[in-house]
């Protein structure tokens, strides 16, 4: 690398280098930031030339960070996060409910609440550019922490540092069974009935799976009781129930959508107090748009009133 005083790097160069440092793969890094691979490679090379430091060790098989690259990658991320915060502050200084709002939603909420969310945005906030990202909880929290997402709609509590929860509602779980199941149609199912049922759950990584397992443990279900995990989504889970492979737990907001497609299903309701989950919005602590997000939560609580849920107090 040539000597001399380093030149000022561009944000584009820093963004390209940070992506390569994260993925250690040029193609994956380029895809992650929406840049062509040649442009990304050129940006990293230009950054190395500007700084007078070799950042990467390139081989035919893989990309590695040099010792200097390891140190400077952390600095680059800090700079990019600071620039992102500056842009967020500037956007918040403009009129509220304008510009882009990147909303992350978990898969067991998205199909059932998004129609209400989208109607609210179209009616009350027509200048808001809502961009929806459906991901599992861990990915959403990572996106919120790194500024990729602005606001989350998901099940709580999260116990995540630096995250503020804005509760929206609580909803009960119901038991979905094959039509001829002995618990089908009952309205007073004791939680203890979960001890020995053939229970179908979502795949690992879904918070709804963890919530269902917690409910079962509270009911006294032993670790050895059969649990069949073979569904990536609630629609598949319900089809398996309709086929007679077992029973499952569904949140009330999902019931009409997921059970309305089959006559082979019936629903049972738990005796009070029924197992339930809480859904909330989540934002970064100290977010520049905090007042805007709190107002959005209030408007959403009103809009969600017709659903079979118990609205939380603001």
From TrEMBL:
GO terms for cellular component: protein-DNA complex. The keyword DNA-binding applies. PROSITE patterns: HTH_LYSR. Residues 9-66 form the HTH lysR-type domain. Keywords: Activator, DNA-binding, Transcription, Transcription regulation. InterPro entries: LysR_HTH_N (IPR000847), LysR_subst-bd (IPR005119), WH-like_DNA-bd_sf (IPR036388), WH_DNA-bd_sf (IPR036390). One of its GO terms (molecular function) is DNA binding. The keyword Transcription regulation applies. Belongs to the LysR transcriptional regulatory family. This is Probable hydrogen peroxide-inducible genes activator. It comes from Streptomyces sparsogenes DSM 40356.
């Amino acid at each position: 690398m040539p000597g001399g005083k380093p030149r000022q790097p561009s944000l584009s160069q820093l963004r390209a280098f940070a992506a390569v440092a994260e993925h250690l793969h040029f193609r994956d890094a380029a895809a992650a930031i929406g840049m062509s691979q040649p442009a990304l490679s050129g940006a990293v090379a230009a950054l190395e030339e500007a700084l007078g430091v070799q950042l990467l060790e390139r081989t035919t098989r893989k990309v590695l960070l040099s010792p200097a690259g390891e140190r400077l990658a952390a600095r680059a991320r800090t700079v990019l996060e600071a620039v992102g915060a500056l842009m967020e502050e500037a956007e918040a200084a403009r009129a509220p409910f304008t510009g882009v709002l990147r909303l992350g939603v978990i898969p067991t909420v998205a199909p059932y609440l998004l129609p209400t969310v989208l109607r609210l945005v179209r009616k009350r906030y027509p200048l808001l550019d809502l961009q929806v990202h459906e991901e599992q909880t861990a990915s959403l929290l990572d996106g919120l922490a790194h500024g990729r997402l602005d606001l989350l709609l998901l099940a709580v509590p999260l116990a995540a540092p630096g995250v503020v929860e804005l509760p929206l509602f609580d909803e009960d779980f119901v038991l979905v069974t094959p039509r001829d199941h002995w618990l089908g149609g009952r309205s007073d199912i004791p939680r203890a009935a979960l001890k020995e049922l053939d229970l179908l759950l979502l795949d690992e990584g879904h918070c709804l799976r963890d919530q269902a397992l917690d409910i079962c443990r509270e009911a006294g279900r032993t670790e050895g009781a059969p649990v069949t995990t073979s569904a990536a989504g609630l629609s598949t889970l319900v089809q398996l129930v309709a086929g007679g492979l077992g029973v499952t737990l569904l949140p009330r907001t999902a019931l009409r959508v997921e059970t309305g497609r089959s006559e082979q299903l019936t629903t049972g309701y738990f005796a009070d107090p029924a197992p339930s989950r809480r859904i909330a919005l989540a934002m970064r602590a100290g977010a520049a748009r905090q007042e805007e997000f709190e107002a959005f939560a209030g408007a959403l609580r009103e809009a969600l009133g017709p659903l079979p849920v118990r609205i939380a107090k603001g």
